[in-house]
Amino acid sequence: MMAQPQLEKKLLPRGRTPLTAKAVLALCVASFAVGLLLSGRVSLLPSASAPGKVKTTSASGCDDSLAKLDGESHDPKGIMNEVSRTHHAIRSLDKAVSTLEMELAVERARSGGGTGGAASTKAPQKASVVIGINTAFSSKKRRDSLRETWVPTGEKLRRLEKEKGIVIRFVIGRSGAAGGGPADRAIDAEEAENKDFMRLDHVEGYLELSSKTRIYFATAVATWDADFYVKVDDDVHVNLGMLSTRLAKYRARPRVYVGCMKSGPVLSQRGVKYHEPEYWKFGDVGNKYFRHATGQIYAVSKDLAAYISVNQPILHRYANEDVSLGAWLIGLEVEHVDDRSMCCATPPDCEWKKRAGNVCAASFDWSCSGVCRSVDRMKLIHNACGEGQEALWGAAT
What superkingdom heads the lineage (predicted)? Predict the structure, then answer.
């Protein structure tokens, strides 16, 4: 028995579906009601001059449109304009409510109600930019190479925080050894000498970088009330003044995610670097990731850092930390800023750009996912591509 051929469905062009009279009427009633609520001009009590009737004053002019719908002639264009204006008003109101809810949630988190921590009686310090340098127990030489180049030390570090609002901390957790092992004690001694660490309630491990990132943002938000929160690896060269100046351009925009955006392949092969065990979630083998900032350095605005802080218990962790961050933000109303000054190559690239007046915010080698042999080369790169102290202290923040 032959199967009957299916009837071909004719699809209307997207966005051109005509509205029926009932649909127009429903939209108009909705806009009329919202208009009355927004204007506050609705009366809930019967009018004294007309007992038994509820008197209302039109706020959107939709009553005329309702009357026209009952007749043979009406103006769909005018009705849709009213619907569009009302929809815009609702969206603006919704964004305002969302912002207030986020601020309330952050305050709850800071007081211990959202992160499971103890209640804090200390208000977060105001700052412009918080820069967390991701580091490990075995990376003391890397940290020293940064302190000798672009990371201020001692009184200069304190002055940078006070005068420019730029906070810099090396971010590290604990070793997991019972009672604190030799690695923990070494960090304690280094912290006592330099006072430039942010210690996290987190057990260090390469496969735990996504967790560390979540906890870093939560800790930073609870400690500093900043416009931007930056994560950078300890083998990247940064020009603090240029980074601060570029971020200042986006201060007035809500929910900004800044970095060098990429979309690399999802690696399903076991044993290779950056293997993604959950590759199947990203579609067929050979697919690419969604756009996200490369992990060497990126910045998120206050709203996004607060979102991560509040929701960290339910944010999924993928194998790669930069992919995890991109996944946390992909479903939100977020502005992705692809800033190529944050991924310049090392000399001669960043040196040529500096001579041309385009100082880089950050430099590293793609082949090494950071500066190759950073301990040996960081000073050379700083001398060739560094912006100078005058640029830092004169930078916009």
Answer: Eukaryota
Q: Report the alpha-carbon distance of residue 29 to residue 23 in Å, rounded.
A: 10
d(CA 222, CA 310): 10
**pLDDT, tens digit, for every residue of 296-348?**
999 999 999 999 999 999 999 998 999 999 999 999 999 999 999 999 999 99
Buried b (16+ CB within 10 A) or exposed e, 79-112: beebbeebeeeeeeeeeeeeeeebeebbeebbee
Is the dihedral angle over the CA atoms 361, 363, 369, 371 positive or is it negative?
A: negative
**Residue type at 251?**
R
Nearest to 334 by CA among 257, 245, 232, 229: 257
Q: Considering only CA atoms, which of 130, 195, 119, 217 is closest in space to residue 165?
A: 130
Torsion sign across C-alpha atoms 163, 344, 213, 246: positive
* Residue 126: its H or E element: strand 125-126
User: What is the rounded distance in angstroms from the CA atom of residue 269 to the CA atom of residue 39?
Assistant: 60
**3-class SS of residue 298:** strand
Report the alpha-carbon distance of residue 129 to residue 227 in Å, rounded. Answer: 6
Q: Decide if 306 contacts 222 (C-beta within 8 A).
A: no
The predicted-structure confidence for 245-262, as pLDDT tens digits, reads as follows 999 999 999 899 999 999
Helix (H, G, I), strand (E, B) or coil at 392: helix
Can you say how many angstroms the Cα of residue 253 is from the centroid of all Cα atoms in its chain?
12
pTM summary value: 0.72
User: Do the beta carbons of residue 276 and residue 327 sit within 8 Å?
Assistant: no
Which residue in the block uniquely carries the two structure tokens 């209302």? Answer: 56
Q: Are strands 237-238 and 256-262 parallel, antiparallel or unpaired?
A: unpaired
**Residue 339, Cβ neighbours under 10 Å: how many?**
21
Round to whole Å and give the CA distance between 253 and 257: 10
How far apart are alpha carbons 343 and 130 in whole angstroms? 19
User: Could you tell me the two tokens for 327?
Assistant: 């996944």
Our CA angle for 109, 115, 118, nearest 5°, is 85
Contact (Cβ atoms closer than 8 angstroms) between residue 358 and residue 276: no
Contact 204, 172 (CB under 8 A): yes
Q: Which residues, including other chains, have CB under 8 Å from residue 340's CB and lie 6 or more apart?
A: 260
Task: Map tokens 């997991």 to a residue.
Answer: 176
What gap in Å lies between CA 142 and CA 53, rounded to an integer? 79
